[in-house]
Design a protein that fits this description.
Elements: H1 3-16, H2 22-31, H3 36-44, H4 63-74, H5 78-98, H6 101-112, E1 117-120, E2 136-140, E3 143-154, E4 161-167, E5 177-183, E6 192-194, E7 208-219, E8 223-224, H7 230-248, H8 250-266, E9 268-269, E10 272-273, H9 278-307, H10 312-338, H11 352-358, H12 360-363, H13 369-376, H14 380-388, H15 424-427, H16 432-441, H17 447-467, H18 477-500, H19 511-526, H20 534-551
Parallel strand pairs: 1-4
Antiparallel strand pairs: 2-3, 3-7, 4-5, 5-8, 6-7, 9-10
Helix pairs in contact: 1-4, 4-5, 4-7, 5-7, 7-9, 7-10, 8-9, 8-10, 8-20, 9-10, 9-18, 9-20, 10-11, 10-13, 10-18, 16-17, 17-18, 17-19, 18-19
Pfam families: Acyl-CoA_dh_1
Domain Acyl-CoA dehydrogenase/oxidase C-terminal: 228-362
Cofactor: FAD
């Protein structure tokens, strides 16, 4: 079964199976219990095995299609998707990166059997400071003795295995931690405890707890990679999760938007529907714009794993920083539209409040938005020097970030801890003026649309030029502000690329809508109020109404 057919079958389940109805999902949220019936339906289809590729490395062939699968699994219930597949996917990326052939085969066996794999990095005392983590693996004959605890681990009680980060050297620095792939069945049950479950506001169905080890023996065979290489391997694996997980979350946002549109289309106020209120229409149109920008950046990021893996340290970080942040803003905007209805757990909008509580988990994980900004800051000066240091030749892969051309196989060995100044997405900014001229020459753009788009592209380049004046000290507020502006420019580049690459469909193909997206980005960079053209607003709201009806 292919990823495409699996996605189609899951979508059919979401609409036809009682275990996926709003009532069922809310019942499990109320009781903070696993939706075992839904998991059994997906297990019967072998969904977990889609995390296993056909090649010897065990990596799925298509990262964009894998992102689509994760998005579909999460689409109706983010918490369910996190427990059923996302956590195991996050663990799997570490095995793809650091595991031996034997360890990859063991992972494949667990996934094909529908088992879960947990990932244990977090220690609450150290937050996102992985180098400060203290769980210790002491060398002993034939292996290591584990002592210490890990916190907030999803599925730890029911997982067949776990990827564990442990300190193997008391010295500070990046060479003091190692990664282990541990089969829980092989552990002495007297040497570890599963800690009490953590109560959470969102993703309430997830079984989140901790684990404590006391002189717990693990064999040498469980070590992934070399001793002391755990931090490097983790940062490489994070490039995959940062590149795909924001896109996986967008199904929930699209569903929340559809729910809002359906509700305001039936809510009667002042002799008309709420959908006729100008402020409501403006909020919905801006939500459409933000979701469209997010989709395009996430798609470029997923394709980037194949096309420019050496640049994923920057592209994945941009995606993980700005997409969850902006989607939370979209949810806040939609909550204002729904008013008191947004926190009610009955009626048409019943699931909306659950999405609002669940979605912050997307910003956290093993890389918060803030830590992603911190990963961008040291790379930006070299990116800007390269951008302005000479002629940027258009790579043969530039358009492959955006179009539907066949992708090369994802080569995980090409991931790098730094992009070394290479930024194909930003570099595309130099090529759009010439492509716009070509579109005018081919009659695709009239003079008015051409002039407007060229003006907006020039304004974006001026924004990039302004970044050169920024300070990039890691603890300087100005550096974080520069990453915010840079990330918005990258959203614009991804949107332009998708439009020119022929990926846009429907109303999004219109030049004036493309101009609207760029204008919105520029206002976000400047942090000034955005006023949408009434004719564009009408087109976007009509598109939303059509989408909402189709998904009902």
């Amino acid at each position: 079964m292919t990823l495409d057919t699996t996605i189609a079958r899951i979508e059919a389940l979401l609409y036809n199976e009682p275990c996926f109805t709003s009532a069922a999902l809310l019942a499990h949220d109320e009781t903070a219990t696993l939706n075992e019936a839904a998991e059994a339906k997906l297990d019967a289809m072998g969904v977990s095995s889609m995390l296993v590729g056909d090649e010897g490395d065990g990596i799925p062939a298509s990262m964009p299609k894998l992102m689509g699968l994760l998005r579909t699994v999460c689409g109706k219930d983010l918490g369910f998707g996190l427990g059923y597949m996302i956590t195991t996917f996050m663990a799997a990326t570490n095995v793809w990166q650091a595991g031996s052939a034997v360890q990859r085969r063991r992972l494949s066996d667990w996934l094909r059997a529908g088992r879960r794999v947990s990932i244990a990095y977090h220690e609450l005392a150290h937050g996102n400071d992985m180098l400060g983590n203290a769980l210790y693996a002491t060398r002993t004959e034939g292996g290591y003795l584990l002592n210490g605890s890990k916190s907030v681990i999803n599925n730890i009680g029911r997982a067949a295995a776990l990827v564990l980060q442990a300190r193997t050297d008391k010295a500070p620095g990046g060479r003091s931690h190692s990664l282990f792939l541990i089969d829980k069945a092989d552990l002495d049950p007297n040497c570890f405890d599963i800690l009490p479950r953590v109560q959470t506001d969102g993703v309430r169905g997830c079984q989140i707890a901790g684990i404590r080890f006391r002189d717990c023996f693990v064999a040498d065979a469980y070590l992934m990679g070399k001793v002391g290489s755990g931090t490097d391997h983790a940062f490489h694996a994070f490039q995959i999760t940062r590149g795909l997980l924001p896109g996986a979350s967008l199904g929930a946002i699209a569903r929340a938007l559809d729910t809002t549109v359906r509700y305001v289309g039936t809510r009667r106020l002042y002799g008309a529907t709420a959908l006729d209120i100008p402020h409501v229409r403006a909020q919905l149109a801006e939500s459409w714009i933000e979701l469209m920008l997010a989709k395009r950046l996430c798609r470029a990021s997923a394709r980037g794993l194949h096309v420019v893996p050496e640049e994923m340290s920057i592209l994945g970080s941009v995606c993980k920083f700005i997409v969850p942040l902006r989607m939370r803003a979209v949810l806040k905007r939609l909550a204002l539209v729904l008013g008191s209805r947004y926190y009610l757990r009955e009626g048409e909008a019943a699931l909306f409040e659950k999405v609002v509580r669940d979605y912050p988990a997307v910003s956290l994980g093993h890389a918060s938005s803030l830590s992603c900004q911190a990963a961008i800051i040291p790379q930006l000066p070299q990116i800007l020097r390269r951008f302005y240091g000479g002629t940027i030749e258009q790579s043969e892969w530039t358009m492959a970030l955006f179009d539907d051309s066949p992708l090369p196989r994802f080569d995980i060995g090409r991931l790098r801890l730094s992009c070394a100044g290479k930024d194909t997405l930003l570099g595309s900014l130099r090529h759009w003026p010439r492509r716009l001229e070509g579109m005018r020459g081919d009659g695709v753009l009239d003079e008015t649309d051409y002039a407007q788009l060229q003006r907006l592209v020039t304004a974006l380049e001026q924004q990039v030029a302004g970044l050169r004046k920024s300070r990039f000290e890691p603890h300087d507020e100005a550096a974080f502000e520069a990453t915010r502006r840079y990330a918005w420019v990258q959203c614009a580049m991804a949107a332009l690329g998708a439009w020119m690459g022929g990926w846009a469909t429907g109303v999004a193909t219109h030049p004036k809508v493309m101009a609207c997206l760029l204008d919105f980005v520029l206002h976000q960079i400047a942090q000034t109020p955005f006023q949408i053209d009434p004719s564009i607003e009408r087109e976007l709201v009509d598109d939303l109404i059509g989408r909402a009806k189709a998904s009902a």
